[in-house]
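Chain and conformation:
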Amino acid sequence: MSPKQEIHPDFLHYLKHKDEELIQLYTDVRTFILDLYPDSYELLYHTHALTSLYTVTKKMGDAFCMIPIYTNHLNLGFNKGTLLDDPHQLLQGTGKWMRHIPITTRTDYDTDEVRTLLEQAIQISIKDANLKTPLQGTIISKIKR
């Protein structure tokens, strides 16, 4: 595992209090995202949910997806989900922009359909951020301990 793939200690501090199955599921979804777009910036938050946000710049507004972890479940959230072409109707939610996919097993996210949604979301974020050349991301913890 590359240093970029390692979970930041601030995030791990809270993650380790979750159920082992939820930790493993989070780790797998995170790896799925980072394998698809390794130059992501990973922004980490601990508010109402322990959340990792994946973005094409250092700005939250340029995020393409997120993984909020709640007490007993997690979601794969799409910040501009209403702009995505979702012919398989995987996305849930009623917000103005945000949509999510509830994740309980690997088959909920490790599919060509979800990969296509992520690729669309990445392209929308790159376009909206007006990036001429890809940036190489890093992990940025916003967690206060």
Remarks:
- The radius of gyration is 14 Å.
- The chain has a mean pLDDT of 91.
- The CA atoms of residues 14 and 79 lie 23 Å apart.
